[in-house]
Amino acid sequence: MSIVKKTGEVPSLKVDKAVGTEIEWLIDRHDGAPNFELRKFKIKPNGRIPKHYHPDIEHEQYVLKGNYEVGIGDRVVRVKTGDSLYIPAGTVHWYNNIGTEDAEFLCVVPKKEDYKAVYLEEEETTALDK
Question: What is the tens place of the pLDDT at every residue in 21-46?
Fold first, then answer.
């Protein structure tokens, strides 16, 4: 089964624990995608996603727009439009939009029943269920 969604058809949702950050589940388990889910994140200027990790979820990301910092393990990298990232499962990561425009990126993750996130700043686990 093929899936086509037009711009504006997917709602933007606030990202739990983050500041100035929204997520759109572009292609997800409810669409019948068998292996992966595609998400788009938007981080406003001065927005951030705090330090966290996912015990069993890897991330593959592509930067659509912006210029922002990403912490991956003990590295901090500055990414910009056109850059790609791979974040292995269990790796601590965070995002900080230090730029003056919105940061946007696509994130592909394996399809799971729930997405567990462990936030280090609060030592709290959250299910990122859709």
Answer: 999 999 988 888 889 999 999 999 99
Alpha carbon separation from 95 to 46, 53, 99 (Å, rounded): 10, 12, 12
Beta bridge partners of residue 108, listed in sequence order: 38, 60
| pLDDT for 122 | 57
Q: In the numeric block, which tokens belong to residue 113?
A: 């029943």
Cβ pair 107, 61 in contact under 8 A: yes
- Alpha-carbon dihedral 54, 103, 5, 110, rounded to 10 degrees: -20
What is the number of domains present in the chain? 1
* CATH at 28: 2.60.120.10
Kindly report the pTM of this predicted structure: 0.89
